[in-house]
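Module 6 notes. Inverse folding takes a fixed backbone as the condition and produces residue identities as the prediction. Think of it as a translation problem where the source language is geometry and the target language is the twenty amino acids. Below is one complete input and output pair. Work through it position by position during the lab.
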C-alpha cells in the first residue's frame, strides 16, 4: 500500500489503484489514513500533527463543512496515535530559547528498525517513500501488507528474518529502547519532585485567571474506573491536581496545578524539562496521576479475566504509551469488553510474569477474576 503521488490530481487515481475504491465511495478510516500519514510524514519531516492533517485533508478534499468531518477527524487522530505508539513517529519537544514556557512539538519519522519479542515481529520506522523497506525474501514469511507493523512469526523463521533484515541494514532495536519506559523511583519521592517544581517562582500565577472554565480538574478522590467522571470544574477545591485545558486550535493541554479555595496559585505545564524527550504531555500527566491515585488509596485497577484458552486484560483508565507498546507485543486488542480498552492474551504465555511487568510500568492495582 505504498502511496506514490505528487500532486492532488494523482491522489484519487492512486487510491483507486491501491484500494480499488472510487472517490464517491471513499470512507476515510484508519486503513486509508495511516498510509497517507506515513507518506506525508516522510515528505514533510520534521513536521507537526496539524501540518500533516492540513496537508492530507486538502489532498482528500476534506472540509469542516462535511457532514462526517468530526468522524474523519477522530479517525485521523486515532491513526496518528497508532503510529506514535508503535514508534514510527517520534515526538520531540523544543522549548523556546527565550522563554521556557513556550514549547513546540515536532514529529520525526523513525529510521527503519525492528524488534522480535514473544513470537512477534514489530517493524518500526518509515523510509523516504513512506513505507517499510521489507526485503522480498521475507515478505511471504510474514504475509507483509505494508499496513500492519506487528506480525506473528514462527520460531523456525526467526534466524532467517534477522539475517535478511541485517543484510538490508535494518537494525534490531532493544525492547527497553522501544518501550521508552521511565526508571521507576519511590512513589512519594516521585510526587514530591513535582510538588517542588510547582513551588518554584516561575510556576506561580501572577495574574488573575478570569475564566477558569477552560480548566477541568481531575479529582483524585473520584472512582478510577470511570475516567470521564473524574473531571470537574474548579470551584472551592484546595490541593495539587492534574488539570486538563483547551488551548488555541483546540489542542488539549495538561498541567499540574496548585489550587487554593478554587484559585489557581501555581501551574506547571507538561511535558516538563525533566521528561522532555521520553514523555509527551498526556503520558506525563497520566503517569503522575497513577502515582497520586495510589498514594491516596484510590489506585487505578487493571482487571485480569481468565478464560479457557486466553485471558482478557481490562483497563479503565488511560495509560502512557509505553504500557500500550508492551501490550502490542503480548497480544491483540479486544473489543468485546465494557472497559476503556482491553487486550487479549493466550494462556500459553507466562501470564503472571507479563502482568507483573505491566504493573511495574506505572502505579497500578492488579485484580484477578
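Target side of the pair, the amino acids:
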Amino acid at each position: 500500500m505504498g502511496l506514490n503521488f505528487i500532486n492532488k490530481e494523482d491522489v484519487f487515481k492512486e487510491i483507486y489503484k491501491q484500494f480499488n475504491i472510487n472517490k464517491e465511495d471513499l470512507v476515510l478510516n484508519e486503513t486509508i489514513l495511516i498510509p497517507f500519514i506515513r507518506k506525508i510524514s516522510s515528505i514533510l519531516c520534521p513536521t507537526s500533527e496539524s501540518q500533516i492533517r492540513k496537508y492530507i485533508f486538502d489532498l482528500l478534499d476534506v472540509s469542516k463543512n462535511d457532514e462526517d468531518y468530526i468522524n474523519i477527524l477522530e479517525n485521523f487522530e486515532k491513526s496518528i496515535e497508532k503510529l506514535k505508539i508503535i514508534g514510527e513517529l517520534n515526538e520531540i519537544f523544543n522549548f523556546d530559547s527565550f522563554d521556557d514556557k513556550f514549547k513546540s512539538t515536532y514529529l520525526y519519522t523513525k529510521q527503519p528498525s525492528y524488534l522480535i519479542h514473544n513470537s512477534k515481529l514489530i517493524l518500526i520506522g518509515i523510509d523516504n517513500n513512506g513505507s517499510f523497506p521489507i526485503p522480498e525474501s521475507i515478505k511471504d514469511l510474514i504475509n507483509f501488507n505494508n499496513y500492519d507493523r506487528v506480525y506473528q512469526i514462527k520460531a523456525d523463521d526467526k534466524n532467517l528474518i534477522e539475517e535478511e533484515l541485517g543484510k538490508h541494514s535494518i537494525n534490531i532495536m532493544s525492547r527497553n529502547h522501544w518501550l521508552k519506559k521511565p526508571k521507576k523511583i519511590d512513589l512519594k519521592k516521585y510526587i514530591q519532585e513535582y510538588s517542588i517544581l510547582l513551588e518554584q517562582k516561575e510556576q506561580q500565577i501572577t495574574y488573575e485567571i478570569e475564566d477558569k472554565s477552560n480548566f477541568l480538574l481531575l479529582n483524585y478522590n473520584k472512582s478510577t474506573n470511570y475516567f470521564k467522571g473524574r473531571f470537574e470544574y474548579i470551584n472551592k477545591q484546595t490541593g495539587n491536581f492534574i488539570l486538563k485545558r483547551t488551548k488555541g486550535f483546540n489542542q488539549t493541554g495538561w498541567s499540574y496545578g496548585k489550587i487554593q479555595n478554587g484559585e489557581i496559585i501555581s501551574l506547571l505545564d507538561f511535558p516538563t524539562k525533566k521528561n522532555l524527550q521520553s514523555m509527551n504531555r498526556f503520558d506525563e500527566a497520566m503517569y503522575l496521576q497513577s502515582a497520586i491515585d495510589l498514594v491516596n488509596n484510590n489506585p487505578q485497577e487493571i482487571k485480569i479475566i481468565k478464560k479457557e484458552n486466553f485471558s482478557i486484560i481490562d483497563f479503565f483508565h488511560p495509560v502512557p504509551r509505553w504500557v500500550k507498546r508492551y501490550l502490542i507485543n503480548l497480544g491483540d486488542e479486544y473489543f468485546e469488553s465494557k472497559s476503556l480498552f482491553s487486550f487479549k492474551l493466550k494462556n500459553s504465555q507466562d501470564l503472571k510474569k507479563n502482568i507483573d511487568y505491566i504493573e511495574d510500568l506505572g502505579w497500578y492495582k492488579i485484580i484477578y477474576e
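Reference fact for the lab report: Confidence is low (pLDDT under 50) at residues 1-5, 96-100.
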